[in-house]
Amino acid sequence: MRLTIDRARAAKLYGLLLLGFCAVATSLGGLLTFAGNPDPLANEKRRLARLEFPTSLAQWQKFPKNFDAFFSDNFGFRTALIRLDSKVSLAFLGRLPSERVVTGKKDWLFFAGEHSIELYQNALPLSASDLAVMRERIAGRRDRLAAKGIGYEFVIAPDKHTIYPEYMLDRFLRRSRPSQYSQTMEMAKEAKLPVVDLRPVLLAAKPHGLVYLRDDTHWNDIGAALAMGPILAGMAPKFQFPPPSVTGKDFEMKSLPTGDLAEMALINRRETAPVRKESSLPCKFEVTEKDWDSAGRKLHTRTHCPGKKGKLLFIHDSFGDALVPLLAARFGDMYALWIRPTDQQFDILVAQEKPDFVLEERAERNLSSEP
Predict the structure, then answer these.
(1) Is the pLDDT of residue 227 over 60?
(2) Name one Pfam family in it (predicted).
(3) 312, 357 Cβ separation under 8 angstroms
């Protein structure tokens, strides 16, 4: 009889505690909902809905829908619950919250947006007309610049899956045909275009250490430094630069902020990777101007290196960010611009900046993109 009473009391106590917990959690969640507008998660790339009090009949009619959007974006513990769901889904289902990221072997992350998986599988070959347009664009820019005594070089930054295909999952089957990268290089070789192939130097360095980041789309500082070898060599005879130094003493291992792929996948982890020491650069350059967009990207950067000669116009995408300091330390002046210019925009930039050399960098996955 006493055991039955104890069980009844325990059940009642458990019910009260559970009810109290739900009441506290609901109340606290409700308060947090209206406590302020939180920051969006890294993979959302948008501003969360805000609550605006209606001041007209039309706004009152829209209020239920607007409040629903506000509550969905701001309810208490939203960020913690979404991250918890992400961890559970990854641990038990192998599923990520972003379709733009896929997991590979040994916890490697790969970018899946912009048809990257199809490109890895060699399922999107460039057509003859695609290659003809690319040939005409590169040759046209080279020739127009040469007429003004300006050097030109086009460099392709390999996607991570090109350098580390062994970490891609086996379910992504590859076709036995040339990649877009290989097609472009074959076309460039036949047409004698100033296109730089970075694959050999990066692949050759793999046995000595990582050259790309596990949790990020891009190369690490060693990968960027290795890329500088072929890039600088391609600037001859306009500029004669000594080979860049890529030795252990030029780098130090540091814990980096969460990589872009991990952010998109809501994976909260840091990666330890080599970071170049500023003292290893051939010139201590100064940044004279820079501009950022709302996503935190450097839209353009101007630099100056006392004692160095020549002006570089560097047109790039996200892979070029790691090259900016390496290039800035070798030219008297540099204007680095994150843009994919049309021929008209390209010519206007050249006329405005009057560079001695133009370096254009583009990621492999964007080879077929216009312009």
Answers:
(1) yes
(2) ALGX
(3) yes
Residues 180 and 234 sit within 8 Å (Cβ to Cβ): no
Q: Which amino acid is at 86?
A: S
Is 301 buried (19+), middle (13-18) or exposed (0-12) by CB count in 10 A? Answer: buried
**HEC secondary structure over the chain:** CHHHHHHHHHHHHHHHHHHHHHHHHHHHHHHHHCCCCCCCCCCCCCCCCCCCCCCCHHHHHHHHHHHHHHHHHHCCCHHHHHHHHHHHHHHHHCCCCCCCEEECHHHCEEECCCCHHHHHCCCCCCCHHHHHHHHHHHHHHHHHHHCCCCEEEEEEECCHHHHCHHHCCCCCCCCCCCCHHHHHHHHHHHHCCCEEECHHHHHHHHHHCCCECCCCCCECHHHHHHHHHHHHHCCCCCCCCCCCCCCHHHEEEEEECCCHHHHHCCCCCCEEEEEECHHHCCCCCEEEEEEECCCCCEEEEEEECCCCCCEEEEEECHHHHHCHHHHHCCCCEEEEEECCCCHHHHHHHHHHHCCCEEEEEEEHHHCCCCC
Is the distance from CB of 48 to CB of 74 less than 8 angstroms? Answer: yes
What pTM was computed for the model? 0.78
Cα distance between residue 341 and residue 337, in whole Å: 10
In the predicted model, what is the mean pLDDT of the chain? 85
Question: Phi and psi dihedrals of 20, rounded to 5?
Answer: -65, -40
| The two structure tokens encoding residue 320 | 């070029």
Token output for 354: 């009057």
Q: Which two tokens stand for residue 216?
A: 């990020």
- Tokens (6 digits) for 189: 């070789």
What is the torsion angle, in degrees rounded to the nearest 10, for the CA atoms of residue 65, residue 66, residue 69 and residue 72?
-100
Per DSSP bridges, beta strands 251-256 and 271-276 are: antiparallel
Give domain limits for the chain: 59-95, 105-366
CA distances from 179 to 69, 123, 203 (A): 44, 8, 16
Whole-angstrom CA distances from 371 to 137, 186, 263, 315, 317 are: 8, 20, 29, 13, 13
The pLDDT score that the predictor gives to residue 114 is: 93
What are the tens digits of pLDDT across the range 134-174?
999 999 999 999 999 999 999 999 999 999 999 999 999 99
